[in-house]
Automatic annotation (TrEMBL):
Keyword Transmembrane: no
GO MF term (any one): 2-dehydro-3-deoxy-L-arabinonate dehydratase activity
Originating organism: Pelagimonas varians
Key words, A-Z: Lyase
UniProt protein name: L-2-keto-3-deoxyarabonate dehydratase
Enzyme class: lyase
GO cellular component: cytosol
């Protein structure tokens, strides 16, 4: 990338056919819809993409397809997390070779009982940093079970040249963002948050310059970041308050299932199928989701119709 990434960089869902196979043509439609939503970048193969349910072959094919289909219209961020440092390095090198713009990585973990100490987490990221020349975003999320201190993150920002973006979505994310920026702000290009923008305003107060949400309605969330960064805090608050019912329902009731369901109802994809052992939402939850989405008149609900 030639410019610093700010704004909104949502996670693309991975569509499946009803038989559970990857819908590669549907994936292209997902990407096209996201471009039309006005996103600043697109993240693929993240947890909200059900990356943990994809085979290595599927991952490789999706990486190539997404980078080639987006074709420079937006930067593409590819999640390359793996417990094995060697595999994490290989994935990162593949992304760079294919023309990906950034990688995102979680710290190495396997379940809740196998996690390396801070110095080994540093070594893991350092090995990837040494192998590539594109930016690295660190994903700091409770899912990993690995606690990365502000001191560790700041040290990585100072010492690892390509590691310049941080997605902080742990509890009390705003406090951690503020502390990280205070400790190493000169070495950080992109302090981001996540969690469907449920804490976005507090995180912007703390110094965040971007957010990584689902792809359900980024066109409604992007103005929150834009207005805030332009100094229009009242307008940012108004936009955030309008979005809060849908943000809250997605975050607390739906999770990754929300975007796929909305995309199906909007004709973006043919099926909102999940891979086992994930289970679909109740019809009650779906009904409320669609009402809230319709109230905001979001692009995804009408994109394919």
């Amino acid at each position: 990338m030639n410019t610093v990434l700010t704004g909104i960089s949502p996670i693309a869902p991975t569509p499946f056919h009803e038989d559970g196979t990857v819908d590669y043509e549907g994936m292209k439609r997902v990407l096209d819809c996201m471009v039309d939503q006005g996103v600043d970048a697109i993240c693929i193969l993240a947890n909200y993409s059900e990356q943990f349910l994809l085979s290595d072959d599927e991952r490789a094919k999706l990486t190539r397809l997404c980078i080639e289909h987006v074709a420079g219209r937006k930067p593409v961020i590819v999640t390359t997390s793996h417990f094995s440092t060697d595999i994490a390095v290989a994935r990162a090198k593949d992304v760079m070779a294919l023309g990906g713009d950034m990688i995102m990585m979680m710290p190495p973990y396997h379940g809740v009982g196998i996690a390396p100490p801070p110095n080994v987490v540093f070594e893991h990221f350092a090995a990837v940093n040494e192998a590539i020349s594109i930016p690295i975003m660190v994903q700091d999320a409770p899912l990993s079970g690995v606690t990365m201190s502000v001191d560790l993150l700041a040290n990585m920002a100072r010492e690892l040249e390509n590691l310049s973006y941080f997605k902080i979505e742990c509890p009390f994310a705003a406090d951690k963002l503020a502390a990280l920026i205070a400790a190493a702000g000169d070495y950080i290009d992109g302090p981001f948050d996540g969690e469907e923008a449920v804490t976005l305003l507090a995180d912007l107060d703390a110094g965040a310059t971007g957010t990584m949400t689902s792809a359900m309605f980024p066109e409604k969330l992007r103005p929150i970041v834009q207005e805030y960064r332009a100094g229009n805090e009242a307008a940012a608050l108004e936009h955030w308050q309008a979005c809060l019912p849908l943000i809250n329902h997605e975050n607390r009731q739906c999770g990754l299932r929300a975007c796929k369901t909305v995309f199906k109802h909007g004709g973006v994809i043919a099926s909102d199928r999940l891979r086992h052992p994930l289970k679909p939402m109740s019809q009650r939850t779906i009904d409320r989701l669609l009402v809230l989405a319709q109230d905001l008149d979001i692009i995804a609900l009408k994109w394919g119709k």
